[in-house]
Amino acid sequence: MKAAILYEIGGTDQLKYEEVPTPPCDTHEVIVKLESISVNFSDTLIRRGLYPYMPEFPAILGNEAAGIITELGDDVKGLSIGQKVLVFGYPSYCEQMAVSGSRVIPLPDNVDLDEAAALPIIYLTAYHMLHTVRRITPGETVLMYAAAGGVGTAIIQLGKMAGIKVIGLTSTDEKAKAIAEQGIGHVINYKQENVVEKVLEYTDGKGADLILDCVGGPNFGDNFKMMNTLGHLIWFGIAAGNPTTNLLGALGREPSKSYAVSMFHLYSIINNPKVMAESMKTLIGYLAQGKIKPVIHDRVPLKEVAKAHNILENHENIGKVIMKP
């Protein structure tokens, strides 16, 4: 079978599309023929050597995909050949995967496989930041960085379901128009507008109740200028590097505001099987019922994996990029 393999840290030229051995099917495993492979920004960080959790090289990247079961091990119960399944947490830049039958997630027949592959990371991240870390309530205002990206579009959809107001930051008029059409409350083009001023304008000077920052970097301190009293800042990404702000100093400037600051990583949910299973069941239910619909920016052949990475690194995407084996 074919797979995209990363041999060492570097540019997209380090991703090689090659023939690799087809995985055997153990007695407790199933073989899944992949139809849809999700690409995440974290994949590009791994390729560049910037991610906190690095694999051993050579490595097959990716960790979410959807496909069809083509073979069952003798000990596997409750699954069938031809069944649609979601595979989460295994290297997925390949045509086929051998996975423990207990680790695949059955999908309803009406679920689109591209949308299923796009679901786990972005919607679990969005769902748990809104409902586990913050416990958002109707009427609150959320400021979302990179609102046209995968997590951003998930926040817009889940936010509407929760009755909250979302202010989104994005970098182009095209992206602003696209997320406006999804029903976001306000959009700010951070390359053309003063973000702090616009957030305060849109919130009548109060600031956002929840800020979701996947950027970090040197401007992290600006968050404290646009947070409401009892506001909550969740930092969950390093697109611009680690924050350089003196956190205790920023909190101490206005102690009467009683800000809360959290760091969120999806591993905290993955490592809690009960919470993980319950939230995945909820989200797959939303998907099957049409309550959420992952935004797919592009579908790229697996052999063009470099193109998929470039789309994300150049911030061209509105929603998710899917690779097709």
- Kindly provide the name of the CATH class of the largest domain: Alpha Beta
Radius of gyration: 20 Å
Q: Quickly count the helices.
A: 10
The CATH homologous superfamily name of the largest domain equals: Medium-chain alcohol dehydrogenases, catalytic domain
Kindly, what is the distance between the CA atoms of the first and last residues, rounded to a whole number of angstroms? 10 Å
Give the uncertain stretches in residue-range form.
none
Q: Write the H/E string, N to C.
A: EEEHEEEEEHHEHEHEHEEHEHHEHE
Morphology = globular
User: What fraction of the residues are assigned to beta strands by DSSP?
Assistant: 25-35%
CATH topology assignment of the largest domain: Quinone Oxidoreductase, Chain A, domain 1
* Helix content range: 25-40%
Class by SSE composition: alpha/beta
